[in-house]
Amino acid sequence: MIKNYFKIAFRNLWKNRISSAINIVGLSVGIAACIIIILFVSYERSFDNFQGDNIYRISEVQKFPGMAASQKVGLSMAPMGPALKAEYPEVKNFTRVRWNDKYQVTYGEKRMFLPCAYAVDSAFFKIFNFKIVKGSPQGDISKPNNILITQQTAEKLFGNSDPIGKVINHFGSDTAKFTVTGILANVPKNSQMQFDAIFSINSLPKNRMESWGGNWLNTYLEMAPETNMATFEKKMPAFLKKHIEGEGSKFYELFYMPFKDIHANSTEIGLDYVNFRKFDKKSTNLFAVIALIVLVIACVNFMNLSTARSADRAKEVGIRKSIGANRSQLALQFLGETVLLSLLALVISIILVEVSLPYINNLSQRELNLPILTSPGFLFAILMGTIMVGVLSGIYPALFLSSFQPVKVLKGSVDTGKNKGALRNVLVVGQFICAVFLMIATVLVVKQLNFMQQKDPGFTRDQIVTVPLDRITSRNYELFKQQLSGNTLIKGITGAQDQLGGHLDQSGVEFKYKDNPLQNLASTRLVVDANYLKLYNIKIAAGTNFSEEKSANGREYVINEALAKELLKDYPKAKMESLIGQRFGFDSLGVITGIAKNFNFNSLHHKIETMYIFNQKDWGFNTVSIKIKAGASKEAINFIKQTWEKLNPDNPFEYQFLDDHFAEVYRADSQVSKIVGILAALAIAISCLGLFGLASFSAEKRVKEIGVRKVLGASVQGIVVLLSGHFVKLVLISNIIAWPLAWYVMNKWLQDFAYRIEITWSTFSLVALLSVLIALLTISYQSVKAAITNPIKSLRSE
């Protein structure tokens, strides 16, 4: 019996090749999209799952006078961890983490730059589950100048020899010798912490570790399991007031994030340096929902085509029932055929996933893989999921087909029904509602991304190359600048402590307006070379730029319009120009020499903050900005590299175009737009496959009607309109329903951006036009084919 069922199933698949192919391809694409998104979501949700529970990071809400809005930061003060453990029994343990990028180490003749080295407390390995594969269990990390390195670092630095006990040197302003006391297993890629070496935080200056007020590291706490964190947080105002002098405590709030939530829930947190490839949980959930929609559309296709072709199998049902088959047997047979088709689609979808994964990995910057052979659980899950898809998509057609009455169908009076046609229309409309919604979402996401990337930020980004400096190479800044300046390929060179497009540091300053009392406030700051504003073409709204020579008034400050407005909020009648020459700054007060027009020094997710800029070369710079000649990028980069290697032979040359840096700032937004676009395209493609199948069926069933119409003089164009009009109407209805839904959802999404596009009706009109054109192109082949068929062939049997 089962063998017979298989024969019938394959015969029906072959007999209805077009509809079978449409079903298999649609299901394959839908299942493939779901598998890829499942892999992505699983990867994101696997971050830090190997760590224990009850681990929290201290984070701060900072609201200083002079700042337009409060900000959340992932940093904390160095003494907080020890003080919390000493004063609160809820805190079982703590560790602090200070990251060090491009950490230079040497052993003998070998020199390398570790991408990142952490300075940590001795409890680091008690709190976190990073494995020490060789050496003492805790790596003696409590002792100054002890270091543990990863297996990868050990291989690069020591080859096959045993590193334990060997001494490596670190060169920098804090030159030190470290003894290797342990080898760490390479850090998993799904860890928010990524490091190549770990050394004792006791190696850092003691006075820095005991200073309250400065935020420059991360603090993690291991809490007692029964701790109520909401209650614990309520104790923090008193804790801050106890340890921070004067009024300073009221400018901070402490909140605690579960360690496993940090990777996916830190979008709004700035200065989040120890958080590898953080990605918004909302975007991950969005991908999952859209992938499910794509799969549902594929299932709807199957239901539509199966019920549409029900008349083709009506006599089979009638004969089987007349010889004793009951309804449950027939339903199971038809469900079995659906599951078989789904399993065929699964095989094809696995091939599609394997082919597309390299592109997906490149796009997402992840290392996704299909664990078919390595994870029996995953294979079982997608197998069961596919069978469920087959059952869900085939259950209605199976029940519908098995319900035919044998007397009626054998007389040829089977009613495939007006009601069934209405259901198919509803399903088609539902498909295209999803497709149109995704089309609108894709257009608006892309428009918002383009808006952010192309909006004038208030400074020049074109043809600017940035070169990072460290504490060693920054000493050669002036010489580097001099040697580059004489070449016609170079249009300008300047330096700064921070690079635009990132979260800049804030610090406190003082301000005295005329004879009024001294004010204390805080603002974003940027330390620059004197020609910085000129190279970046930042406009001056009032006053002047920095003096090339040292000013007689002391340190000079240029503030932005946002800070000028904040400084004058208590003097509503004062004009902005009145700030020029007023006392401002820290240490011995300097003067405000200029007011710069507002510019977006951060991403457009954020409003323009208050900012002051000052020229302080002797503090050293962390980045060099070089404006190069247009059309000569390759030659200019080669010249810069040669100059660098002469001055800094022991330091590798690194550079980045400023445009590329800002593209990285919007990396997550770009990934979201591309992935949503791909899923939208798949939804449209699958919907169009279903439309093609229904158009084919409709033309086939109306072949005699078309023949009669042609004999009576109907034109080809008229017949095409007749066959196409019904489907175009369904697509237009889908647009009308999808528009308000898309407007509501996308308007909510755009609220996350400080600067955003307006949702205009032109977007909806464009999508409506595109959806109708796509539908027409999809059904035009079948419509035209039916319209030009010789009516003699279709009417011959009459």
TrEMBL record:
The chain crosses the membrane at residues 21-43, 286-305, 330-357, 377-401, 422-446, 675-699, 711-739, 759-779. Residues 20-236, 435-637 form the MacB-like periplasmic core domain. InterPro entries: ABC3_permease_C (IPR003838), MacB_PCD (IPR025857), Macrolide_Exporter_MacB (IPR050250). GO terms for cellular component: plasma membrane. Residues 289-406, 678-791 form the ABC3 transporter permease C-terminal domain. GO terms for molecular function: transmembrane transporter activity. Keywords: Cell membrane, Membrane, Transmembrane, Transmembrane helix. It is found in: Cell membrane. This is FtsX-like permease family protein. It comes from Mucilaginibacter pallidiroseus.
